[in-house]
Amino acid sequence: MELKIMTWNIKGEASLGWNNNYKVVSEVVDKIIDQETHIIVLTAFVVARGLDYLFERLHSEGYIWFISNRSGKNGILIAIKKELVDYKKLIENIYKENSISSVIAGCNILQVSFPLKCGKSLDIVGCRMETGGFDSLQEQYDSERNVFDKVLLPVVKDRNCDLQIVCGDFNNARCLGNLKEKYCFRNYVGKAQCNYNLNIIKDSFEEIGFIIIDIDENGNSFPTHNGYIPDDHIFVHGGKCEECTVISAEGLSDHDIVKATVNFEC
Fold this sequence. Notes:
By secondary structure, this protein is α+β, with helices and mostly antiparallel strands. It has five helices and twelve strands.
């Protein structure tokens, strides 16, 4: 089963929807739909003006969607093509089982488990690591490492699904090591991200059976934030990457879109 996946930080930040001029503009919505993917994960998502158009377009294009949002926090939106899902079973699971969960402390997380028509289960986790409020970058990244180990990874390990996707904004700063190799402290000596970086994140996911999608054949990461920081990633379990690209979102967000085609065993 070949699935097209996208993740994008749309820069809603923590707008309250009424305290500034932030709006989910139609250009952002059209950019999302234009990617023609089976799965959409939006980070830095907030409930604000303009959502009606987003929901109308998702509905007209055959998606079902889930959101997590709390005033003053960054939220997550996960959408999936309805045609892939055992819809009746999904509804039953939502009301009878713990098919949906969310976290807002330290890392904004939305996790949804989908029964697929092929008979397998697919777990999707959208996440955005929180930043800000620290006296130094070292303190920030050390805090992110703590949240990564104690909040995000346990959430990912918690579900017993056939197929898994974890994607979003990990706020991990520049990658200074080769991603074909294990984390090497020498690559990060004296750097604020010495204890939290893409090498460590990748190694941690590989230890639980995931592969990273957004790297090239030489082990280089794809820049997604401000043109040079690889902050946004896709990890999968039970699938193989066929293609991954970064789509420019200049003028719409300071993050670009990560888009991938993954062949899942279904």
